[in-house]
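TA notes, week 10

Several of you asked for a full example with nothing omitted. So below is the full record: structure tokens for the whole chain, then the designed sequence directly under it. When grading your own attempts, check the secondary structure regions first.
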């Protein structure tokens, strides 16, 4: 008996079917997206062309939506900061978000419900560069109520594959 799982593609609302072998492939790729097909095949006792076709189907079904690079910023002589901002006037949130997207050192933005008004991550060459960015931001937007930040000393890799 083959177990078949269903996942909803929230962008289209269509349910997508996948089986235990697909889950095993996803687990391997979630740990290292650059794993060779032949290594996945050996691990799952399958041939590499079957693995290739399964991955293509997972991509076509939008279960796999992309592959992400995971950089070690310290080896690039950069420092990672996470910034959280609360505003006095949330009606101006779009204005500050547009500005943040223009910061060259920006590496990600975070959209969360019930959290801070604006959240983003930076990688900078020095703490002086970081403080200059924050100072410019606070001078430009007088409706910032508070800025909370922390320097990230170690950034652990996220495994995006839930246990199914």
């Amino acid at each position: 008996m083959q177990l078949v799982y269903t996942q909803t593609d929230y962008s289209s609302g269509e349910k997508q079917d996948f089986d235990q072998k697909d889950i095993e492939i996803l687990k391997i790729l979630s740990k290292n997206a650059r794993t060779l097909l032949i290594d996945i095949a050996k691990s799952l006792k399958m041939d590499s062309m079957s693995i290739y076709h399964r991955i293509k189907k997972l991509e076509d079904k939008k279960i796999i939506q992309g592959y992400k690079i995971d950089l070690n910023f310290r080896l690039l002589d950069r420092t990672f900061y996470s910034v959280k901002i609360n505003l006095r006037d949330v009606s101006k949130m779009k204005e500050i978000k547009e500005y943040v997207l223009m910061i060259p050192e920006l590496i990600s933005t975070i959209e969360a419900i019930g959290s801070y008004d604006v959240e983003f991550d930076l990688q900078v060459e020095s703490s002086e560069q970081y403080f200059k960015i924050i100072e410019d931001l606070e001078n430009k937007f007088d409706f910032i109520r508070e800025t909370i930040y922390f320097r990230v000393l170690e950034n652990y890799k996220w495994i995006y594959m839930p246990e199914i």
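The first strand starts at residue 4 and ends at 8. Use that as a sanity check on your answer.
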